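ARCHIVE RECORD
Type: protein–small molecule complex
Small molecule: zinc ion
Source of inputs: curated submission
Record status: active
Notes field left blank by submitter.
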Amino acid sequence: MLLKERFESDELLAMRYLNPRMELTEKEKFQYINLEKGYEGEVKFDLLLKDLQEDRYIINDLLLEVNNSQFQIDTLILSQGVIHLLDIKYFKGDYYLKSDKLFSVTTGREYKNPVIQLKRSETLFRQLLQNLKQNYLVDASVIFNHPEFTLYQAPMDLPFILPTQVNRFLEELNKTPSTLNNGHQKLAQKLISLHQTKNRYTVLPEYHYDQLQKGIYCSGCKAFSIEVEGRLGICKACGHKELIENTVIQSVREFKHLFPDRQITTKAIHEWCKAIVSKRRIRRILEKNYKKTGVHQWTYYE
Ligand SMILES: [Zn+2]
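STRUCTURE (tokenized, with ligand):
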């Protein structure tokens, strides 16, 4: 049973919203692409877990803290006698392990060693269980679920589940009987209640309102080439069409995410959309989709 769903992290959303509006450095672009890929891989893995049998709780995307150290668990599966901690890596291409480090064959780039990350989370999670006076077997693995992932020079005893082993891992899991009781439920609820929303290790590019590109961009090709024709916005670059109302709502979402301290007013959104859509229309869209507070020029939306 799925107890906690997965959503895009605040970090991924911020990067996704900033990407078309500012020039990211190579490093930031790499960070952003990895976040998108990582999320894609997690969602793909979630789909496989839909067929899990027996009584089990699935808790996605937990950010926990023990002794001032935050750690993240992509997927936690709570069965009767064991807790699986899964770290999902959606790496594509050829990689090799050398003196405890992970490298891409094609780019030569070094990646954080997934084993070290996994062991850290596992140790902290065990401590947390101890603090909660809970006694469970903990089994932690890294799941590489991209079908085109190959790993060279990997010792056999690493806690890795490679693409060709993912189905077998799930079959094995399915074969183990599991019945959950009140205690499991309480533990699951406790873990979810301990979930933190702010990741202290998140580093976003520095950005300022003035420096960001304003306007409405195409949700298909990300170009700022939308022209308004009636109720539609039509992209002059790729021909994609979408309702202006939806593009404005998306723009508001981005404005709110990137500038949580700024008020959503007709004037602010009109400027954010670079006046492509009339003030009157923006006011109507805001009134329809948000809660209005205040009157006249002091009106803002929530
Ligand atoms: Zn387009």
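CURATOR ANNOTATION: Helices lie at 10-18, 26-49, 114-131, 166-175, 182-193, 244-258, 266-272, 279-289.
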